[in-house]
């Protein structure tokens, strides 16, 4: 009984990566087809050297860690921020609620943006915006400005929840 494997590139997961006919002819041959096939472009992550792949992975992990700390530890500044701005705990919590809402919603924009202009510029823009956020937070004087600050932060930190997985998968399958 033979199985009929169809290759339809428009349907994900239907690429033939192991040619069974070649496998039966020679058990030791390299009969795998890489999907995607590496290009001749030296900028293609599949063509990077091993140290460059490790450096790239380390940078993505460092970015992820830094942004997670910035987003996840905002509760620790509630008391000083509330005292400096006059915002109540309820207003601070509402702002953080908007932050997390925007992180979820803006992923719909930032993922296609990264695919359109590239991941590196999106990461750089996110880092620059992340550097502005701590300075802006010290200048907040009203609830509206606090919510605007949180929405701004939500847009630029939404990248954290859509890009690192794709970035790591670009290189990790080829790492030893």
**From the alpha-carbon coordinates, what is the Rg to the nearest angstrom?**
23 Å
The amount of helix comes to: 55-70%
Number of DSSP strand runs: 0
The overall average pLDDT, rounded, is 81
Give the domain tally. 1
The topology string of helices and strands comes to HHHHHHH
- Give the end-to-end Cα distance, rounded to a whole number of Å: 37 Å
* Beta-strand residue fraction: under 5%
SS class: mainly alpha
SS field, number of helical segments? 7
**Mind describing the biggest β-sheet?**
none
| Morphology call | elongated
Low-confidence stretches: 1-5, 23-27
Keywords:
176 residues, mainly alpha, 0% strand
Structure description:
It is a single chain. This protein has one domain (48-172). 62% of the residues lie in helices and 0% in strands. The longest helix has 29 residues, at 89-117. It is mostly helical.
Describe how the helices and strands are arranged.
Blueprint lengths: L19 H6 L24 H23 L5 H8 L3 H29 L1 H19 L5 H15 L5 H10 L4
Helix pairs in contact: 2-7, 4-5, 4-6, 5-6
């Amino acid at each position: 009984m033979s199985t009929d494997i169809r290759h339809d590139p428009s349907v994900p997961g239907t690429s033939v990566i192991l040619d069974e006919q070649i496998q039966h002819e020679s058990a030791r041959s390299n009969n795998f087809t890489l999907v995607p096939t590496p290009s001749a472009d030296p900028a293609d992550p599949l063509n990077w050297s091993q140290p460059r792949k490790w450096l790239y992975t380390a940078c993505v992990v460092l970015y992820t860690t830094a942004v997670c700390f910035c987003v996840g530890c905002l509760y620790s500044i509630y008391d000083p921020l509330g005292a400096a701005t006059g915002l109540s705990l309820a207003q601070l919590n509402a702002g953080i609620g908007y932050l997390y809402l925007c992180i979820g919603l803006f992923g719909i924009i930032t993922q296609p943006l990264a695919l359109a202009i590239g991941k590196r510029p999106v990461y750089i823009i996110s880092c620059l915006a992340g550097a502005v956020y701590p300075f802006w937070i010290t200048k907040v004087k009203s609830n509206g400005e606090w919510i605007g600050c949180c929405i701004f932060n939500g847009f630029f930190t939404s990248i954290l929840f859509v890009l690192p997985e794709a970035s790591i998968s670009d290189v990790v399958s080829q790492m030893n």
